[in-house]
Amino acid sequence: MDKLLFWVSVLTSLLEAVAQTNMIGKVFTFPKASNSAHMSLTTQLEKPLQNFTVCLHAYTDLSCGYSLFYSIQTQSNEMVIFKSQIGEYNLIIGGDKIFFKVYENFPAPVHICASWESSSGIAEFWVNGKPLVRKGRRQGYSVGAHPKIVLGQKQYSYRGKFVKSQSFVGEIGDVYMWDSVLSPKEIWFVYQGIYIKPNILDWQPLNYTMQGYVVTKPLKWS
């Protein structure tokens, strides 16, 4: 029995690694489709959120739909950045989906920023430093506190299972989140790699839990 408990402990350690580290110059690599492999990020969000901006880099050759950034709180689609197909991104706030169209090269690394303002309901989406058409949803809504942020997976229902067909395969890096709507100048600075200190998620240092087949590797693209 003691040996069994020992090997269970070892296996658990291999499958789930908790860390806090400066991730500058590194990416999370998701090598293959999975219904389990993901990253859980620990936030500093202690109260409901009326405004936010999320920025990240991604590189994949997937042409089907996949999740980039997924927030779980009291419902499955509290806050989601999802790419439904080439040239189309979705931002989901409180279960309401917003569509953004963009002309893009494929496959190629991409830098994405998404922001939302509760007072107006206006959502903004930026791809490689360029703004897409503003749209709006959920005016007056608040995103719940203490969310679980997931990279690489998305659930169909609250507390449901991950779906392999919508898992991310590729690399994600430079994930930052603020509790404000960044200005166009600030978005451009972030796209250029200039550090604007975030107060919700910080890539340097990042608190995360690694679950399943996810690998940390040096950044080789920009």
Structure description:
With 222 residues, the protein is mainly β. Helices cover 10% and strands 41% of the residues. It contains 2 helices and 16 strands. It has helices spanning 2-15, 184-191, and strands spanning 16-21, 26-30, 38-41, 51-59, 66-72, 79-85, 88-93, 96-101, 110-117, 122-127, 130-131, 135-136, 148-151, 170-178, 206-211, 215-218. The strands form 2 sheets. Strands 1-15-3-13-5-6-7-8 form an 8-stranded antiparallel beta sheet. Strands 2, 4, 9, 10, 11, 12, 14 and 16 form an 8-stranded antiparallel beta sheet that branches. Strand 5 and strand 6 (79-85) form a beta hairpin. The radius of gyration is 17 Å and the shape is globular. It starts with a helix and ends with a strand. Residues 4-16 have low confidence and may be disordered.
Instruction: Compute the separation of the termini in Å.
Output: 50 Å
Question: How many DSSP E strands?
Answer: 16
What number is the mean pLDDT? 86
Shape by Cα distribution: globular
Which value, in Å, is the CA radius of gyration? 17 Å
SSE arrangement:
Elements: H1 2-15, E1 16-21, E2 26-30, E3 38-41, E4 51-59, E5 66-72, E6 79-85, E7 88-93, E8 96-101, E9 110-117, E10 122-127, E11 130-131, E12 135-136, E13 148-151, E14 170-178, H2 184-191, E15 206-211, E16 215-218
Antiparallel strand pairs: 1-15, 2-14, 2-16, 3-13, 3-15, 4-9, 4-14, 5-6, 5-13, 6-7, 7-8, 9-10, 10-11, 10-12
Notable features of this structure?
222 residues; mainly beta; globular
